[in-house]
Amino acid sequence: MEFSSADVFKTVQPLEYYRSFLKNNKRPDGRELFQSRQTFLNIGYITSANGSAMVKQGETTVVCGVKGELVTPSPEEPKKGFIVPNVDLPPLCASFFKPGPPSEQAQVLSQQILELIENSGCILKEDLCIEENKLVWCLYIDIICLNYDGSVIDACVIALLAALLNTTLPVVQISEEANRTIVEHNTESLKVHHLPISLSFTIFDGETVIADPTKEEEFWSSGTFHIVILEDGSLAGIHKPGGSAIADEDLCKCITLTKNRSAQLIKLINKTILTLKT
Predict the structure, then answer these.
(1) What is the DSSP secondary-structure string of the chain?
(2) What are 172-228's pLDDT values in tens digits?
(3) Among candidates 224, 212, 105, which has minimal Cα distance to 151?
(4) Across-strand partners of 188?
(5) Sign of the dihedral defined by the CA atoms of residues 270, 56, 166, 111, in that order
(6) I want to staple 80 with a disulfide (CB 3.0 to 4.6 A). Which of 123, 125, 153, 214 is the partner?
């Protein structure tokens, strides 16, 4: 097998390899620094779930399934249902994930998804209540990464929103006279109040910021963060776990870019749902 000089350069000096592109405002895959990869969306991917979606962003691919289960509410919150997200990063999605208990990154992603849902008001737990103190819905949200190539939180969020908008739950009645729960064949759509969109960024050498990084760009960067924007353009959060600081000017550019990206992705989600219904 023959190797090109570029392959050798990338293997021997990976950081210098990336710097040689970044100094010309380009990346090895041909994208500009703030250019995101193309996103594909398939809704209703899992027929056995109450709602589902599959997202492919570049080579990063995730699938999300939503399943509702009738349970008794907690005594502390008798009018609220439950939301239980779980992100799985299995060995099949990338060689650096090993079999066994959930990795730290998977646990962090699961917590980020829960916080995103709760902080944005995407779904309200009160809407999951059927009868106070007696019966509520528990939504199990399972997100599985099929292929990991960076910016996985962004793909997870798109799949999450599309799956939630695709979710329908049976109409449930509680018969006091018969003392039983009646689950009807009719269904109703889950109430989704807001659509938060995430966009990831990495920082190279403490100064160059790029959007929608691949796994290699994440690995060689000096810091990562992601920004969450709601459908009305308002800022929902900036999540930066550490690493290099970012200049205020660059941060403003990133927020503006995320707003534009949010509008594009919400348009894609709505268009895909409309196509599914027609």
Answers:
(1) ----HHHHHHHH-HHHHHHHHHTTTB-TTS-BTTPPPPEEEEES--TTSSEEEEEEETTEEEEEEEEEEEEPPPTT-TT--EEEEEEE--GGG-TT--SSSPPHHHHHHHHHHHHHHHHHTSS-GGGGEEETTTEEEEEEEEEEEEE--S-HHHHHHHHHHHHHHT-EEEEEEEETTTTEEEEEEEEEEPP-----EEEEEEEETTTEEEES--HHHHHH-SEEEEEEE-TTS-EEEEE--SSS---HHHHHHHHHHHHHHHHHHHHHHHHHHHHHH-
(2) 887 776 567 777 778 999 999 999 999 999 998 888 999 999 999 999 888 899 999
(3) 212
(4) 169
(5) negative
(6) 125
CB burial of 116-139 (b: ≥16 within 10 Å; e: otherwise) equals bbeebebbbbeebbbeeeebbbbb
Task: Tell me the pLDDT tens digit for each residue of 225-247.
Answer: 999 999 999 999 999 887 788 88
